[in-house]
Write a structure and sequence with these properties.
This protein is an alpha/beta fold and 244 residues long. It contains eight helices and nine strands. Bound molecules: SN-glycerol-3-phosphate and magnesium ion.
């Protein structure tokens, strides 16, 4: 497997500081700002359609209630996923991963699919993402990430030749254990919450040949400091202000 070369700036949930996260408007924003790669969060609906969605439940980013995996896709489609962000985005829909792939393919953009945990539906999650990916025209480049070890394991079995990365938001495990996970599932990258990054960690990960990404950075000074430390790529909500 050839290691993917990541751009320095990756749009977070599209460009979610400028449009509602994980929507087609957010992808359009990222594209209009000439980003070559975006990250989106993916899980499945009750009827196993892979969708772009971050939270377990619908309340924060839609006018629906309950867990998103308790609703069929056509019902999720009826929700408003935009007006919580700004009324000018009213009637924005929860997109399917299929729509997202079509949009990015047309724009020749690359994608980081973050596989979200989907309690007890992890296998279904990964299987349905893989099924969709296999039947769609291929994006120039894409890769998978997850905080969730089981999802990472599954995707490494189903699509062994597609790059993948582990996400970490704290050090409950030691750096050595984290490295063992990366090696076990042949991860090319590790994505860290920028608050837990320091020069020692960067040195350790670089020595072990991992590409280092950091999330979520919306401040140019912090972005520059991270690049100076050796971070390879950053995720930002504000690709209009974070330009390197
Ligand atoms: O992949 C970076 C980032 O997306 C991970 O955290 O919660 O924004 O999905 P979250
Ligand atoms: Mg994410």
């Amino acid at each position: 497997m050839q290691k993917l070369k990541l751009p320095k700036i990756i749009g977070h949930r599209g460009a979610c500081g400028l449009a509602p996260e994980n929507t087609i408007s957010s992808l359009k924003k990222a594209s209009s700002l000439n980003l070559s790669c975006v990250e989106v969060d993916v899980k499945i609906s009750k009827d196993s359609v892979p969708i772009l969605f971050h939270d377990e439940s619908l309340e924060r980013t839609t006018d629906g209630v309950g867990f998103c995996n308790q609703h069929n896709y056509l019902d999720l489609r009826k929700l408003d996923a935009g007006k919580w962000f700004d009324k000018k985005f009213a009637n924005e829909k929860i997109p399917s991963l299929s729509e997202c792939l079509d949009f990015l393919y047309e724009k020749k953009m690359n994608l980081n699919i973050e596989i979200k945990p989907n309690k007890k539906f992890e296998l279904e999650n990964v299987k349905n993402i893989v099924k969709l990916i296999n039947k769609k025209p291929k994006l120039p480049n894409y890769y998978f990430t997850s905080f969730h070890i089981e999802s990472l394991k599954l995707i490494s079995e189903y699509l062994p030749n597609i790059n993948r990365g582990l996400l970490i938001d704290n050090y409950i495990s030691s750096m050595d254990d984290i490295l063992i996970m990366c090696e076990k599932y042949r991860c090319f990258s590790i994505g860290l919450d920028f608050n837990i990054i320091n020069s020692e960690i960067i040195k350790f990960l670089k020595k072990n040949k991992l590409i280092i990404t950091a999330y979520t950075i919306n401040n140019i000074k912090i972005a520059k400091e991270l690049f100076d430390l050796g971070v390879d790529s950053i995720f930002t909500d504000r690709p209009d202000t974070i330009k390197i």
